[in-house]
Every structure is written in structure tokens, then in C-alpha cells.
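Allow me, if you will, to draw on your knowledge of protein folds for a short while. I have a record of one protein: its chain in single-letter code and its fold written as C-alpha cells. I remain grateful for any guidance, and I place the record below:
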Amino acid sequence: MPAVKKLLHTRMRVNDIERTVKFYQDALDLTIERRSVSPRGAQIVFLNTPNSEEQIEICQMPPGAPPVAVQPDLMHLAFEVDSIERFAAALAKKGIALSDGPTDAGGSIIAFIDAPEGYEIELVERK
């Protein structure tokens, strides 16, 4: 059986692509790899994540598509940080507060922030 080689990207549908991309740039310092419009008319932005080959694809469907309604605890993205305390302080200066934590998770300290559209972001400080 053929084997999967690696994870390339994770796609997240949103209602407001510009607001979402700005949040990921400001909060997590992600950078835009490329923008495009799909054959179906969806706006697409690929974001690079530091020290990782995997990307995040942000997608906004064309006008007339049903709105995105993210269910609570549907999914989250997790990012490793050197220090939750320092990272949270830097976020606070940008007006972004932790939505949960910090919590000792038995080997790591974790905390969460809320991204636009109802998605969560987990911050992980490994001990």
C-alpha cells in the first residue's frame, strides 16, 4: 500500500478572510505564502508557520455560499511557544487575551486564545 509522505496543509473556511489573516499575522507572526482564487471563486490564502513545512490554508467561499458556523471544540491548531507567560504578555500588548489557561498538562503548560470565526488556538510550552 502506498504511504503518505507528509502533511502539507490544513484548510479552514472562514466568513472574513482579511480579518482572519490579519489575526494570524498579528497574534502568531505567520506570513502569507500566496493568495489565489479557486476555479469556484473562493479566495484562498496560504500561511507559513515558523519552523514548519506545514501551512494553514484560509478559504472564503464566494458570495452566496452558506456562512461558516464553527461548532464549539470542533478543532484547534496548536503552536509551541518558548514561554506561555512571555507570549501571553506580548499578546496582551496587542489586545489579545488568553481564553483559557495557563494549565499544567502533565509535561507541558497549555493555554488558549480565540481566533476569529470561533476557532481556537492552543499554545504549548513544553517543559
